[in-house]
Design goal:
By secondary structure, the chain is α/β, with parallel strands linked by helices. It folds into 3 domains: 42 residues; 160 residues, Nitrogenase molybdenum iron protein domain (Rossmann fold), CATH 3.40.50.1980; 115 residues, Nitrogenase molybdenum iron protein domain (Rossmann fold), CATH 3.40.50.1980. It is built from 11 helices and 8 strands. The termini are far apart. The structure holds zinc ion (ZN). Zinc ion binds next to loops.
Length: 344
């Protein structure tokens, strides 16, 4: 910015000096006086241009937003639209518990005005160290730019005490709460609130977008519940325990898992137990996220006559979910309704 103003000043001065049209050696005193006056006017013009330029830059500065996972990112985009520059760290086909921490993430976090993360230990294996290395006071320690999505969410499966023994990666409670649209509303509110505070000039824009997003969810929730209502109480099997909030919202039972504990790979012994329970409960659908072992799910399905359905918690994780949070929920509801509605 300084360089640009200095250049303008130099150009201005050259122009003014060359248009006086007098030889530098004649009328030395008056030429100097004229030059000084021209110089003063030039400086004022340059300063005015500088102030105007700063105002323009500030008016168009977008909030620099970093979201940890694509579901959070999709909601940030719903609220922020084109008023924000958004970076999503995890890929939609990546396990959110085990994201590959690239050095470029540190640069993004260093420049962020806002960091939006789950706040419930989903990213505990990779995010804290990146944030520490980014050294950005705007996004840590309850700073205005740190959004912890879980605040206000009714967290489920929270143990009496934190216990990571045995490799359980849900030691602080089940962190996959965003597959419940009611929780998406809570998260949208946190995000809108933060954007409106940090970018007051666009406050109304963010609040209006939140209102629209909520209205869409209200309308769609009725539709989604209607589509799944006839399957109330039915058992599905999940590879990983990331569907509890979804199951509760839509009256399904997703309590059997191919993993013996979240984050622990399935053992033959555990799978034998699961297969027996599936037969007992008449569970006819196995759901599996893109980053988990589909072959294991296929094996279990073959042994029980069940159907495997590819699911994802993240927009873009499975074909047809790229459109955002609503597209993701549409896909989940439609594909599960289709699978559950199929005769065995
Ligand atoms: Zn998990």
């Amino acid at each position: 910015m300084m360089t640009r103003i200095s250049l303008v000043a130099a150009e201005n001065f050259k122009l003014n000096a060359s248009t006086t049209g007098e030889h530098p050696s004649s009328k030395r005193q008056s030429v100097t006086g004229v030059q000084r006056g021209v110089w003063n006017v030039g400086v004022s013009v340059v300063l005015m241009i500088g102030v105007w330029w700063l105002a323009v830059v500030n008016a168009h500065a977008k909030l620099n937003v970093v979201a940890t996972t694509p579901d959070i990112g999709a909601i940030a985009r719903e609220i922020g639209g084109e008023k924000i520059d958004l970076t999503i760290l995890a890929r939609p086909t990546e396990d959110p518990h085990f994201v590959d921490p690239k050095p470029s993430f540190i640069v993004k976090l260093n420049r962020a005005d806002v960091l939006i993360h789950g706040g419930a230990d989903l990213e505990v294996g990779w995010l804290p160290r990146l944030v520490e290395q980014a050294r950005n006071a705007k996004i840590v320690g309850a700073a205005k730019g740190e959004v912890r999505c879980c605040e206000g969410v009714q967290m489920l499966e929270v143990p009496e005490k934190l216990d990571r023994s045995g490799g359980d990666i849900h030691a602080a409670g089940n962190p996959h709460f965003l597959v419940d649209p009611e929780n998406a509303k809570i998260v949208a509110h946190h995000i809108a609130d933060t954007f409106a505070t940090l970018d007051a000039a666009n406050r109304e824009f963010y609040l209006e977008r939140e209102k629209q997003f909520n209205a869409t969810l209200e309308r769609k929730l009725v539709e989604w519940q209607e589509k799944l209502v006839s399957f109330k109480g039915q058992h599905l099997v999940a590879y990983h325990n990331s569907w509890l909030y979804f199951a509760n919202r839509f009256g399904l039972k997703i309590e059997l898992f191919l993993e013996p504990k979240p984050g622990i790979p399935p053992s033959p012994q555990h799978l034998t137990t699961v297969i027996a329970k599936m037969k007992e409960l008449n569970a006819r659908v196995v759901i599996v996220d893109p980053y988990l072992n589909r072959k294991t799910a296929d094996t279990v399905a073959r042994a029980t006559g069940a159907k495997v359905v590819s699911v994802t918690q993240f927009p873009g994780g499975v074909k047809g979910t790229e459109g955002g949070y609503v597209a993701l929920m549409d896909y989940l509801v439609n594909s599960l309704a289709a699978a559950l509605g199929t005769e065995k």
